[in-house]
Amino acid sequence: MTSTTRIVLGVVLAFLAAIGGVFVGRALLPQPQQPGAALHDVLHHKLTLDDGQQARLKVLEDRFAMQRRALELEMRAANTRLAEAIETEHGNGPKVAAAVDQSHAAMGELQKATLAHIFAMRQLLRTDQTSQFDAAVVKALTDGQG
């Protein structure tokens, strides 16, 4: 076997070992839960919403999905402007600072819209359902801290 063949074989084996390691890691290690997944689980599976609550929740979720998508697009655009400003100024100049402010404003609008959505969903709940919902909201906001 030539030294070139050994090198190629070594590279191929290293690549296959790396791919195998990724698959084993994904199979054995728990995947992080998406933010808000626990809240979604409480709303749809643990609170036993009646048909009227489910119908109103669907309307709220559909409306928020469109709003969230628009705000996420605005955040993406703000990040593009930030990248362009960094590329232009190569430092923390006025264009970069303005682009950072735009990015933070877009993030803030998404956070405000998310909170308004959470409070709107809470309004759909009966008094006996709110404490479990509130606990899920707190958990979603504090998961991974401490």
Automatic annotation (TrEMBL):
UniProt superkingdom: Bacteria
Family matches, as Pfam families: Metal_resist (PF13801)
InterPro entries (alphabetical): Metal_resist
Protein name: Heavy metal resistance protein
